[in-house]
Structure formats: structure tokens, C-alpha cells
Amino acid sequence: MTAAPGTPQPGTPGQDQPGRTIAVVHAGLGQPSSTRLLADRLAEATVRELAALGQPATVETIELRDHAHAVIDAMLTGFPTGDLARDIQTITRADAVIAVSPLFTTTYSGLFKSFLDILDKDALTGMPVLLGATGGTPRHSLALEYSMRPLFTYLRADVVTTSVFAATDDWAQAGGHEHDGGTALPERIDRAGRTLAAVVADRRQRTGPPDPFATTPSFLDLLGGD
């Protein structure tokens, strides 16, 4: 996991308050990869928009390729360990998640889905999530809506309305010109960052999923001890 400057908490600008945390999860397989590049650009746009709202932010980037074996182990044993467990905790305690996957045969990657499968069923409940995907051709862009969005909706995440798909040609466009009648990639990234930042800025800071044992009385209380 890598960190970058970034995110705050809502409130009056200038007050001394803890910053926001944006967890970026991507399933890019190469180094470098266009999936990581899109994830970074989305994070930068979100942080920039939060800063404009007077809220500093921190970005924590999680590369799933580094956890590939650990993810399979967690599926077999039923629980994650080590660095994978720590990164999952980072996600559940974040103020928002940016999730980006390459598309293979018109859907998200197996590694991306396997990672989501080992999360607690309530880990992303109410979590603001911005979706992104990369692929070879713009024809696959709808996979964000018929494949990725329903997946996060099932997990009860608060998926923002704007998502970003980047085809191979999008990265090659000189000067960010429009492609096939659509909006240029930099503009789509900026719009997505504004959308996520607005949602994050309007919310209280998360502390992770509620502790199911938080209200359980201690044995000392049950015995009436001091």
C-alpha cells in the first residue's frame, strides 16, 4: 500500500480537524498499468476538489496484484492475514473508496471480484464509492453499469453517479480531444472527482464498521462489581 497527500473532514475551513482518507483499490496487473494510472488520476481529481472545499485529504493506494496469493489463501481459510488484513482495515475505515479494474471478456477481473468476496458483507455499507475501469475499446464501457455498479450496489455501497471508463485510445489522445463524440478523458475524470468530493465533504468522518460488541456489558458489570 502506498500513501499520497490528500483528504479532510467536513467542517469550517481553517479549523484544526483530522483529514479525510480516500482508499484507492485497483486490480491492474502490469507495472506500470493503465488501470493504476486511471486510479491515480481519479484520486488526484478527488483530492483537488476536496482541497477546494477546504478539506485536506490523504490517499491510500492498494494494489491487488501484491495480494494475489493472500487473497486466494483468505478464500480458502476464511480470513485474511498480514498486509492484506491491514489493507482491508484501511478500506473499511476510509471516508471513500475509488475502485478500478481492468475489463476481461466484458467484466471486471477475477482478482478484483475475489478481493471483494473476502470482505465482510457489511464492510462497504454506506461507503461512498467511485468506479473506474480500463479496456481496449470503448465498446466495453457499459460494463461499468451492467457489471461493476450492480456488484457494489449489492454490497450496499453508496456508488456515486459518475463513473469513468478509459479505453486504450483515450490515453493516446493528444491534448485531451474528444473521442468518437464523447467527452475527453481528463474532463470525465475531473467530473468524477467533483462528484465523489461533494459526497465525502457532506458526510461525517467514518471510523469503520460498527463494533457488534460495543454495547455488550462486561462481566464485572454483570456481577455488579466496582
Automatic annotation (TrEMBL):
Coiled coil: none annotated. It comes from the Bacteria. GO terms for molecular function: oxidoreductase activity. Keywords: Flavoprotein, FMN, Oxidoreductase. It comes from Promicromonospora thailandica. It holds the Pfam family FMN_red. The lineage of its organism: Bacteria, Bacillati, Actinomycetota, Actinomycetes, Micrococcales. This is FMN reductase. Residues 22-170 form the NADPH-dependent FMN reductase-like domain.
